[in-house]
Design goal:
By secondary structure, the chain is mainly beta. The chain is built from one helix and eight strands, in the order H-E-E-E-E-E-E-E-E. A five-stranded antiparallel β-sheet has the order 6-5-4-7-8, with no helix packed on it. A three-stranded antiparallel β-sheet has the order 2-1-3. The radius of gyration is 15 Å and the shape is globular. It binds zinc ion. The site of zinc ion has 8 residues, from loops.
Length: 130
């Protein structure tokens, strides 16, 4: 069963999620957002990264529908797994919630919603913006 591996680099991210916030690293040198959490900016190799609250909005880049439960993230199939391009310019894989799978669309505008998954684990998911 999948468990997020929380280490020193990703701890602020997971602590934000636990508070219901989506945080992203921002490079102080090239001013670009960085995701997933890491020590070095993948664009300019600066180590001068700081955590900032994300806008929480983005666009569905692509998606697929999982019709079979798999691990703790798909206990109620079918579920929509999506690649979301956040407005900050980074891409996340997540779940779309609050949408029937046939209604999911590439290019749809979405907003983050932190969902309790199991126990004390929560995950940032996305829901359509009306
Ligand atoms: Zn940079």
């Amino acid at each position: 069963m999948f468990e997020p591996m929380i280490d020193a680099d990703s701890r602020p991210y997971w602590e934000g999620v636990a508070r219901g916030e989506l945080l992203l690293q921002h490079c102080q040198n090239c001013e670009r957002a960085v995701f997933y959490p890491r020590v070095v900016c993948p664009l300019c190799f600066s180590t001068d990264l700081e955590w900032r609250a994300a806008s929480g909005t983005g666009t569905v880049y692509s998606y697929t529908v999982m019709r079979k439960a798999s691990g703790r993230f798909a206990t109620d199939p079918p579920t929509v797994v999506a690649l979301v391009d956040l407005d900050e310019g980074v891409r996340m894989m997540s779940h779309l919630v609050g949408v029937d799978p046939p209604e999911a669309r590439i290019g749809a505008r979405v907003r983050v919603t932190v969902q309790a998954v199991e126990g004390d684990l929560s995950l940032p998911c996305f829901t359509p913006v009306p």
